Each structure stands twice: as C-alpha cells, then as structure tokens.
Amino acid sequence: AKDTFSSTTIRSVLSEIYAADKTVVDKKVNNSTVISIVRKAVVRRNDSARQYIAASRTDLAETETREADLLSTFLPPLKSEAEVDSILRDIISQQNLKDVNPHKRKGELLKAFYSKVDKSLVDGDMVQHRAKEHLANSP
Hints:
Elements: H1 4-23, H2 31-54, H3 58-72, H4 81-94, H5 105-116, H6 124-137
Helix pairs in contact: 1-2, 2-3, 4-6, 5-6
Pfam families: YqeY
Protein name: Altered inheritance of mitochondria protein 41
Main location: mitochondrion
C-alpha cells in the first residue's frame, strides 16, 4: 500500500526476529519468541515516547506512540487477571505446595503456572504479584 511508516516499523521488528532466528541452531524461532520480540518492541517504543514527552519533544513521542499502536495490532491479547487467578488457584489446589519449603513455594507455583501458560500471553509482573498474593492467602 506504499505506507512507508508501517513498512519501516514492521521491517525494524522483522530484523530483530531474523536476528533471533539466526541464533537458534537448526530451527526457526517459535511463535512465543516472535510475540515476545514484538511485545518488547512495543514496550521500548512506549518508554521512548514517555522520555520524549518529558523532554518536551511531542513530535517524536507521537511517532513512537503510533509505532507502538501499529505493532500492538499484531499481538494477541494478554490473559486477564481473573484468568491468571483461576489458573493459579487450580495449581494451588492440585499441587500440595504446603510441603514445599516456604522460600521455594513461589518458584514452584510459577514453574507449574508457566508449564501450563505461554509466557508471551501474560504480564510477568502481574503473575508474580498474583502468585505472591495467592500464597499469602492460602492456608
């Protein structure tokens, strides 16, 4: 469509994907890795936009925001907090984490969580926070 803005933005992310593809021996990068790369690109652009706004460069901030919005259209939605809570409750009820050393409980819970859920489909900070709350509230 001769949209130079979109093509340039997409090419920049594709170059990161190709670079990641070259680091994987005898395989291609999987969907999870591609989604993670695109999510990181969106986060970088949003961070840059905030820094440009702080420096009173709204023109550059607008460009970064448009790029982040464009790349976001290619991403699947993140799991909601309610979905994460449900999965964490299921894991806690299925596994006997009470017998695990209290210092290792969170690690065991997160390990079980990520064996069920792809990391690229959740906000890692939110999962950490929710896991900590669930362990604090479980008997």
